[in-house]
Design goal:
This protein is α+β, with helices and mostly antiparallel strands. The protein has nine helices and nine strands.
Length: 308
């Protein structure tokens, strides 16, 4: 298998976020890919996919000629349990996991063809607002299907807990002398602390998804749409909608109470718990935002979620 060039976004983000450890991962990629090629009898079927931040992803063919995707991840808390979730989904609304390498976290996955992203898909005869509602319905339907109780994950990584995110936010935002109290979200931190307390006791726990956005859903032949790149957490159902609702509110065209209740109904979750998760995600991103225009947009999104 000829090793393809690592996409610039992956190289940039791995180095920026992980420094020397990221460089070591990049340096070891050719050897890792070569080993997995021999282990799983693969041959390259095209250049690596562009985009992304933590993964080297390349189309391959298996020994019998079947299409697949080799995905080698820079393993961290957020993505380490991706193979665990894919194994338990077993192709029900998400790409199938064919092979998993415990040593590196690498996966051999089903290739979704044609693989067009839901975010950029145009629906014939639909104007922009109508198409947006259709995308939202598709996304909510898939994530509602994917939430399920966590079964035995013997031999696979355990899932991080969403409640640990709450504890991390409480520690950061509750520190009167911390950097967050000096940042752009300072006037929202007391609200965030209250939201953390409200969400501290989830009504149920299962496999939730942290990174629910429309670019992680692609068109396929086996099913019309499949989820790729899940970031599984042990979480309540409303957790799934936190990032999804935030992103939909931030980018439009729909917003406010109508959007909140559409997502809540689509996921089958309590609207107030959904809004609380979305507000926490929005405040967290506001805290990290720079630039006057971006700050204004992030602030407007938080305000719209509060008022919904």
């Amino acid at each position: 298998m000829r090793f393809g060039v690592v996409p610039s976004s992956v190289r940039r983000d791995v180095l920026a976020w992980h420094g020397s450890a990221g460089q070591a991962w990049l340096d070891g990629l050719p050897k890792t890919v070569w080993r997995l090629q021999r282990l799983w009898s693969l041959r390259t079927d095209g250049p690596p996919y562009g985009g992304g931040s933590h993964s080297y992803v390349v189309p391959v063919r298996r020994a019998g000629g079947e299409q697949a995707v080799l995905k080698v991840i820079y393993r961290d808390e957020e993505n380490a349990a991706e193979p665990t979730a894919l194994r338990q989904y077993d192709g029900d609304g998400a790409v199938r996991l064919y092979e998993y390498d415990p040593e590196t976290g690498a996966m051999l996955l089903e290739r979704a063809v044609p693989g067009n992203r839901l975010k950029s898909t145009r629906f014939f005869g639909h104007r922009t607002p109508e198409a947006a509602w259709r995308r939202i319905g598709i996304a909510c339907g898939l994530y509602r299907r994917l939430w399920r109780p966590l079964a035995d994950a013997d031999g696979f990584p355990g899932l991080p807990a969403a409640t640990d995110m709450l504890q991390e936010w409480k520690a950061e935002y509750g520190d009167a002398k911390g950097e967050a109290r000096k940042g752009p979200a300072a006037h929202r931190l007391d609200l965030a602390l209250d939201l953390c307390d409200r969400l501290a006791e989830p009504p149920e726990l299962g496999i939730g998804n942290r990174d629910t956005h429309l670019s992680n859903i692609v068109s396929a032949e086996r099913e019309p749409w499949l989820v790729i790149d899940p970031k599984p957490y042990l979480a309540e159902r409303a957790f799934d909608g936190g990032y999804l609702l935030y992103m939909l509110q931030h980018h439009g065209p729909h917003s406010g109470a109508e959007l909140l209740h559409a997502v809540a109904d689509g996921l089958g979750v309590d609207a107030e718990r959904l809004r609380a998760w979305a507000l926490l995600r929005a405040i967290d991103l506001l805290d990290e935002t720079e630039g006057e225009r971006d700050l204004a947009a992030a602030e407007a999104t938080v305000a719209a979620l509060e008022a919904a």
